[in-house]
């Protein structure tokens, strides 16, 4: 049985794609099958992919249906999740032990997949994992801070059992937190392995502008049913990121705009209760009143 299926949605990634391809080709444990989904690129991405496919026998290039690329704000409509799911339609996941998503602007260390799969073998209930992300800052490459239980959507790796239990990923904003929540609801653990760090050549939430990205994260908080106390505290924390002050306001704006519009939220009552319980557990140390975690 093959071990690793890897899927990379790509649109107009000519500036970074070659680094990603070279890094995957140099892995000590290569994917058994790597599907790169060209989602309507208008730059040199198709030419780069054609050359790579002729050189790497495990790489297959797919052309996504045009309707997946219709909205200019691709993150808001979860275009990558849609392309990812489309690539899975004609595959039998029983042929693989692990399925991964890798963005086309990520440069992996050579031992990346080998070490992640070793982690799954050591911990049978590990359901979702991924490396840390290094982003270029004023002092060079620095590890982006995320909670240990969160794995960035740019480089996720699922066990087949976990992926089946959560019924794959949802095609909506916030999918890369919804999947982890459902994984933990089903008894799996989720964890970032920061000691296996990859370079992210485009800063998080900047594809359509930094402030728009902050507002989008606020919208995610509403969709995921995070409580008002968390949103307020998060706004203060985000305000300490560039552009200072405005980042926090943009995050809060995104949340309030979604609340006023009554955007679709995760309506699963079990999900809502589980999120509230996790939030209560995480704030015990700072003694935030439990009623603030209700949504």
Describe it.
By secondary structure, the protein is of the alpha/beta class. The protein has two domains: 199 residues, Spore Coat Polysaccharide Biosynthesis Protein SpsA, Chain A; 84 residues, no CATH class. It has ten helices and nine strands. The radius of gyration is 19 Å and the shape is globular. The C terminus is likely disordered.
Strand and helix layout:
Layout: E1 2-10, H1 17-25, E2 33-38, H2 45-55, E3 59-63, H3 79-88, E4 96-102, E5 106-107, H4 112-122, E6 126-137, E7 140-143, E8 155-159, H5 160-165, H6 175-185, E9 189-200, H7 210-223, H8 228-238, H9 246-261, H10 269-283
Parallel strand pairs: 1-2, 1-4, 2-3, 6-9
Antiparallel strand pairs: 4-8, 5-9, 6-7, 6-8
Helix pairs in contact: 7-9, 8-9
- How does the helix and strand content classify structurally? alpha/beta
Overall helicity: 25-40%
- CATH class placement of the largest domain: Alpha Beta
H/E element sequence: EHEHEHEEHEEEHHEHHHH
Q: Report the average pLDDT across residues.
A: 91
The proportion of residues in beta strands is 15-25%
List the keywords.
295 residues, alpha/beta, nine-stranded mixed beta sheet, 10 helices, 21% strand
Can you give me a brief rundown of this structure?
With 295 residues, this protein is an alpha/beta fold.
């Amino acid at each position: 049985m093959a071990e690793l299926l890897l899927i990379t949605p790509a649109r107009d990634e000519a500036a970074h794609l070659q680094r990603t391809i070279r890094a995957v080709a140099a892995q000590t444990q290569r994917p058994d099958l790597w599907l790169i989904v060209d989602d309507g690129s208008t730059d040199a991405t198709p030419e780069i992919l054609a050359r790579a496919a002729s050189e790497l026998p495990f790489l297959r290039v797919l052309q996504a249906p045009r309707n997946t690329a219709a909205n200019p704000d691709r993150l808001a409509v979860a275009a990558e999740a849609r392309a990812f799911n489309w690539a899975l339609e004609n595959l039998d996941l029983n042929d693989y032990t692990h399925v991964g998503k890798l963005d086309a602007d990520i440069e992996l260390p050579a031992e990346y997949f080998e070490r992640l799969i070793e982690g799954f073998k050591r911990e049978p209930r590990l359901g979702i994992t991924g490396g840390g992300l290094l982003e270029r800052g004023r002092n060079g490459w620095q590890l982006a801070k995320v909670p240990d239980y969160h794995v960035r959507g740019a480089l996720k790796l699922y066990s087949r059992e976990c992926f089946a239990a959560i019924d794959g990923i949802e095609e909506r904003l916030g999918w890369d937190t919804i999947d982890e929540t459902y994984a933990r609801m089903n008894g799996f653990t989720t964890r970032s392995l920061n000691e296996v760090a990859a370079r992210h050549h485009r800063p998080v939430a900047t594809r359509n502008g930094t402030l728009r990205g902050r507002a989008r994260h606020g919208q995610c908080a509403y969709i995921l049913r995070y409580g008002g106390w968390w949103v307020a505290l998060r706004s203060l924390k985000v305000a300490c990121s560039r552009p200072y002050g405005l980042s926090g306001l943009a995050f809060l704006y995104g949340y309030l705009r979604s609340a006023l519009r009554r955007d679709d939220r995760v309506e699963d009552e079990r999900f809502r209760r589980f999120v509230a319980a996790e939030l209560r557990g995480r704030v015990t140390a700072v003694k935030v009143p439990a009623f603030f975690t209700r949504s």
